[in-house]
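Protein in question filed below.

…
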Amino acid sequence: DLYRKVLVFRKDPSDAYVVLRARLEEPLRNLTVCLRSYTDLSRPHSLFSYATKAQDNEILLFKPRPEEYRFYVGGKFVTFRVPEGRRDWEHVCASWESAGGIAEFWLNGKPWPRKGLQRGYTVGVPASILLGQEQDSFGGGFDLYNSFSGELTDVYLWDTALSPDKMRAAFLSLRLPPALLDWKSLSYEVKGDVVVKPRLRE
C-alpha cells in the first residue's frame, strides 16, 4: 500500500525504473491511466509505459516539453497542449475507448478537448508496464534522455473510460472503482535508484 507515499527517481538522467504488475487477463478496448508527477525537468520524459511484444508504445503517457503531453495507444498519439507548469504537482488522467476512437485528457481535474485516436483498436496483453523509462522494446530499449526524474504517485490503470465524476474523484484522491493497477494495493519492483518516501504535502 503506497497511500500517501511517492516514488522518488533520484538521478537525472536515470537508468532506474519501476516494474508494475497488473492482472491483465484479456485485451483492453477501453482504458484510463491516471498519475501524479512532480518534476522540474524541461527535457522529454516518460510517465507511464505499457509495451507488448508487438507494440512498444501500446499505451504511453509522454511529456516531450513542459507545455505538452502526448498520449499513445497502439503506437499512434494525440497531443494535448497545456499551460507550462508552475513547478507544482500535476495530476493527469488519459482515457480511451475503442468503439468511438475517443481520447480524453484531464489535467488537475479539468478536461481538455477530446481527440480522435485508434478507433476499433484493441490493446494487447501480456504487457510490460514501467514507470520512469520509455520502452523501445518489450521491457527494455531505454533512452536515458527520455527517463523520468522527480516524484510519482497515485498511479492507476482501469479497463474502462472513467466518467467525468470519477476523473474528478481521481484528482481529489476520493474513493475510486477497482483498478487493474491500484496505488493502494500495488504489486511493483524497483530497478535501480528509486526511493519510496512519504508525500511532503497533501
In short: Helices lie at 164-171. Residues 164-171 form the longest helix (8 residues). The first strand starts at residue 5 and ends at 9. The chain has a mean pLDDT of 96.
